[in-house]
Specification:
heterodimer, A: 60s Ribosomal Protein L30, Chain: A, five-stranded mixed β-sheet, 10 strands, globular, B: alpha+beta, Chemotaxis protein chec, 8 strands, 42% helix
Chain lengths: 160, 204
């Protein structure tokens, strides 16, 4: 049976193998997988913005800092071991460029940095990432193997 | 936190606003393509971020998107979304070129599409500004050809903030000629505060 858990924008989900975690159409957003291979438990977050501090609130799952905290606590409840946790991520692209406004704000890059920083703070090693560029990604994480499958429209597919 | 209030009467008024704006955009499209354009009754959705696919369908489909920022008294994001086939037909008509165009790579095609986005969103915004008396400007157009979900997410967080619920105003424009049919979807996503200004015109 195809047991795939879909994660929407500004949301996160956790699960156990043999489930897979998937999020569709990442642009400047970041998909972050945090997993414990030994316990076969993982979570996937679809993060939209770097930090809850510089914005005017709303759903905590929009921001890198608050969303990852919530997901880590759910992973813990599900039985994942904090010292076994590892991470992979994808996304953070720049989908549009406006002529004459070259690098005014690259929200994708700021998202990448924010996620890296939060992982470092939490002491979770980032095993692999596929970030940046100017194209969208759909990602699928296999909880049983720890593989992250990345699909794009013009840049082929890869596994990290 | 900004809480969106979309009651039934506001919803009707919103549809009317979109009707006026996209009606004007449709007639520009019609005169650019020298053909009759059909327009659907506007739809209004207020969807939480994680349910965006309920309103927009499959988020991993390849689409051609013209994206313009609307700035001024009632800011927002305007997008004209085409499937690859429709974009190709429209480009051929705009360039008066009978041969197939590679819209993924052809730079002439890209500038024709950007011009199309520019004209359509200008018409939309002009209609809105005329009717509401609110001053509005548009940015230069940006073009994306990729997964629709990826382009929507990037457009939503342009500017570094995003509401929990997204208000999407949408009309479908279509044409069918002898052997070719094509259609596009016009989206307007008002930013915080823009809604109250536009609806203020109706006194609601």
């Amino acid at each position: 049976m195809n047991n795939t858990i879909i994660v929407g924008m500004a949301d996160y989900k956790v699960g156990k193998s043999p489930a897979k975690l998937m999020t569709v159409g990442l642009g400047s957003c970041i998909g972050v997988c945090i997993y414990d291979l030994q316990s076969q438990i993982a979570g996937l977050a679809h993060i939209m913005l770097p930090s809850s501090g510089e914005n005017s609130g709303g759903k905590e799952t929009k921001y890198a800092d608050t969303c990852l905290k919530l997901m880590l606590s759910d992973l813990d409840k599900l039985g994942a071991k904090a010292n076994k946790l590892k991470a992979k991520m994808a996304g953070g692209a720049q989908m549009f460029s406006f002529a004459g406004k070259a690098s005014l704000l690259k929200i994708g890059e700021r998202n990448i940095l924010a996620v890296e920083q939060e992982l470092k703070k939490a002491g979770i090693p980032l095993m692999a990432s596929d970030v940046g560029g100017t194209y969208g990604r759909t990602i699928n994480f296999d909880i049983s193997t720890g593989e992250l499958f990345i699909k794009t429209i013009n840049q082929g597919e890869k596994v990290i | 936190m900004f809480k969106m209030d979309v009651s039934a009467i506001r919803l009707e008024a919103l549809k009317e606003i979109v009707n006026i704006g996209s009606g004007n955009a449709a007639s520009s499209l019609s005169s650019m393509l020298q053909t009759r354009i059909e327009m659907t009754v506007p739809k209004v959705w207020l969807v939480p971020l994680n349910k965006l696919s309920d309103a927009l369908g499959r988020l991993d489909e390849l689409k051609v998107v013209l994206f313009l920022k609307v700035e001024g008294g009632a800011p927002g994001k305007a997008m004209f979304v085409l499937d690859e086939n429709s974009a190709e037909i429209i480009v051929r008509k705009l360039l008066r070129q009978p041969d197939k165009v590679d819209i993924l790579k052809d730079e002439m095609a890209h500038s024709a599409l950007k011009e199309l986005g520019n004209v359509m969103v200008s018409s939309f915004v002009t209609a809105l500004a005329t009717f509401s008396g609110i001053t509005l400007q548009i940015s230069v157009p940006a073009l994306g050809i990729d997964m629709i979900g990826a382009m929507i997410d990037a457009a939503l967080i342009e500017g570094g903030r995003v509401d929990d619920d997204v208000l999407i105003l949408n009309t479908k424009l279509s044409a069918s000629e002898a052997s070719e049919e094509y259609e596009g979807m016009f989206l307007f996503i008002p930013e915080e505060g823009a809604l109250d200004k536009l609806l203020g015109v109706f006194g609601i």
